[in-house]
């Protein structure tokens, strides 16, 4: 009896889950087995955590989508485990189950491998963050900030919101992918705007208390100079402070932040977005750049090991580290795998290759959001910024529909979402 090809997907958040689900658009369970490995048993819907925090809701209660039930629908196996090692020569992955402490390691083999493990958020590399920093990256830190804001910890002092320096690799870099000094700066802009609204409604001030900072020449530089200029003009008119070219965070203290260029910002509340670094076991692998991000071509497969794919934050070509980019990459990877498995032609699989666009919906408070759609950073001609209540409704509705569909957003719906954002006033 012939053994079915095995597709092993490492990571079950936006990119990994979508790849797993969309493979089944083309490849039946009897023609290939698919396994997803993630150390968590759920997808964490990170983009909407700030909304929950400011509304004093527990993000752990609303931002988690269980993986096993939705993957069962596709006859896809789910393993809750941490990835310890990848051997691309023998096509083996070493894992350690995380459901209960004390598990022994195990080894999985594959015919095709998709690395969609996201990254490590390097808070542990920021001096003083543990004692004096806050962020919105997950349920733990989200709830820590929620309790601080809503239970009297915050006394009404100045606020600083911004990014540490991102360190990007250059080995195997695609020509159209720029070098970035911050991993993703839509979230700092969103957090600043929505928190200023929260301050106003709690009679604790407003934008004049908030300073936005960046290591780059421009905040959110991936949106393009025109859009950033519009955002800075709006923010400046509202009273926000702004500091750029700070190089990196040197130290966070009780009363503020010191930066590598010698400047400092006074702040009682410090909301930080760290460097995004690869997982340690990826560093030094022949499929990775000098930092540990997985090198791919426009088909999102490694040039030297074409059975290895990468999508989402683990991929070197994902710049900025933006959820919508990983989401879009998942469609490409699923089609490429379907071609490898004999279910699609070359023409069908290559009908759309990696050509990144920044698509971002950001909460502004007061039931409003901004919408950015841009590819000028990559040499394109799309540069759209819009604001209003409709875009907040679209942001919230996407999370609702994503959970209802078990993370399987049809390609046509994905394209319609950006069309609506572009066209509707």
Automatic annotation (TrEMBL):
InterPro entries: FAD/NAD-bd_sf, FAD/NAD-binding_dom, SQRD. This is FAD-dependent pyridine nucleotide-disulphide oxidoreductase. Residues 6-136 form the FAD/NAD(P)-binding domain. It comes from Chlorobaculum parvum (strain DSM 263 / NCIMB 8327) (Chlorobium vibrioforme subsp. thiosulfatophilum). GO terms for molecular function: oxidoreductase activity.
